Amino acid sequence: MELDSLYQAVILDHYRKPHHKGLQSGFDIQVKHNNPSCGDEVTLNLSISDGVIKAISWDGVGCSISMASASMMSDLLLDQSYEDANQILAEFVELMQSKGQSQGNEALLDDAVAFAGVSKFPARIKCALLGWMAYKDASSQLMA
Ligand code: ZN
User: Residue 122 C-alpha to ligand 1 middle, in angstroms?
Assistant: First the structure.
């Protein structure tokens, strides 16, 4: 697989114009995660009420994979129920663990299937998962 497959157009689009980036006030919880092996950092603000993700915003610095993935994560999870969001999260984690063997479930992951190629590059998987792990941490604390 070419290294180019890491950087599909949709990933670069989200990197250049990230969605939901810029921390919003009025959150229920804030978490900060980083990926020391690459230098990526993400701070995530999250609000869940009545079991629905009402607000999600993030800020951070890092490589294009980490920033684009956080952007797509926030797009995919906003307005989902906690249960549906967990299903999407699980699908993305499974894709990242697939070692290039999975194309990803587009019905659940939409544009995030573009990260399928990343699963062949172990050093980059943590980049792609950073924002998602921040969400997992924040949401599980809120729903505990
Ligand atoms: Zn990175």
Answer: 11
Q: How far is the CA of 51 from the centre of ligand 1 (A)?
A: 31
**Ligand 1 midpoint to CA 30 (Å):** 21
At the topology level, CATH places domain 3-143 in: Sufe protein. Chain: A (3.90.1010)
CA distance 87 to 40: 25
Q: Which residues contact 92 (CB under 8 A, 6 or more apart)?
A: 73, 104, 109, 112, 115, 129, 132
CA of 28 to the centre of ligand 1 (A): 27
Give pairs for 102-109: CB < 8 Å, separation 24+. Answer: 109/76
Mark residue 16 as left, alpha or beta (left: phi above 0; alpha: psi -120 to 50; beta: remaining). Answer: alpha
pLDDT tens digit string along 79-110?
999 999 999 999 999 999 999 999 999 999 99
| Tens-digit pLDDT profile for residues 9-66 | 999 999 999 999 999 999 999 999 999 999 999 999 999 999 999 999 999 999 999 9
